[in-house]
Amino acid sequence: RKEVEQDPGPFNVPEGATVAFNCTYSNSASQSFFWYRQDCRKEPKLLMSVYSSGNEDGRFTAQLNRASQYISLLIRDSKLSDSATYLCVVNILGGYQKVTFGIGTKLQVIP
Amino acid sequence: DAGITQSPRHKVTETGTPVTLRCHQTENHRYMYWYRQDPGHGLRLIHYSYGVKDTDKGEVSDGYSVSRSKTEDFLLTLESATSSQTSVYFCAISAGTGGYNEQFFGPGTRLTVL
Questions:
Q1: Which residues neighbour A82 within 8 Å (Cβ) at sequence distance 6 or greater?
Q2: What whole-number distance in Å separates Cα of residue A6 and Cα of residue B75?
Q3: CA-nearest residue of chain A to B54?
Q4: Which residues of chain B make contact with A45, given a CB cutoff of 8 A?
Q5: Chain B contacts of A52, Cβ < 8 Å?
Q6: CB of A106 within 8 A of CB of A8?
Q7: For A53, left (φ over 0), alpha (ψ -120 to 50), or beta?
């Protein structure tokens, strides 16, 4: 089983739609979680950290479910500019802050 | 944006030649990382550094070496490039001071080994 699993998609959604991605992780010792956004041929950029109580940033909401070992990202009112690949990242805290990346979920928002 | 640069941004080289990629940061962060990204794979850690002259291997370190003689610079060397090392290479940095310790990425280097 992969340490971090994501559905690669693509998810094709119309503008204005709500879309949700899940990401499962295998190591119950995982301590911190992130969502990154990666545009085509660009570097990953931090979208948001995922806190135990869940957190929201504008149209984006992240949730953590430790019991089932998954995190989720909800995007409301999708914009064309949201089209990108969304990477799930899990950090098992250690001396060097090792993180594991999911393969990413591709989102295409359609006019 | 975090102050991270990578050089070169693009490189084409031939099998068997040595290649060195440079990552430079202006954030004075302790941790630096080299990743490669290939289709069908997530970002995979090659090597990382937790301080000047302190480095260790990641999951795909074979064929690569690194050096960190200054806080701001982290070099990745392919001693004898092979076609399987054709990839996009990303450098990342992290403060590592506790808490969530997000990583921030450089713009990447596209390497083609012919």
A1: A75, A107, A109
A2: 31
A3: A96
A4: 105
A5: none
A6: yes
A7: alpha
- What is the signed CA dihedral for B5, B8, B10, B13, rounded to 10 degrees? -150
| pLDDT score of B76 | 98
The list of chain A residues with pLDDT below 70 reads 93-97
- The helix/strand/coil state of A91 is strand
pLDDT at residue A14 in the model: 97
Residue corresponding to tokens 């690194």? B66
E runs forming strands in chain A: 4-6, 11-14, 19-25, 32-38, 44-50, 55-57, 60-65, 70-75, 84-92, 98-101, 105-110
Can you give the pLDDT at residue A61?
97
Looking at residue A80, what DSSP letter applies? G
> What phi, psi does B5 have (nearest 5°)?
-125, 150
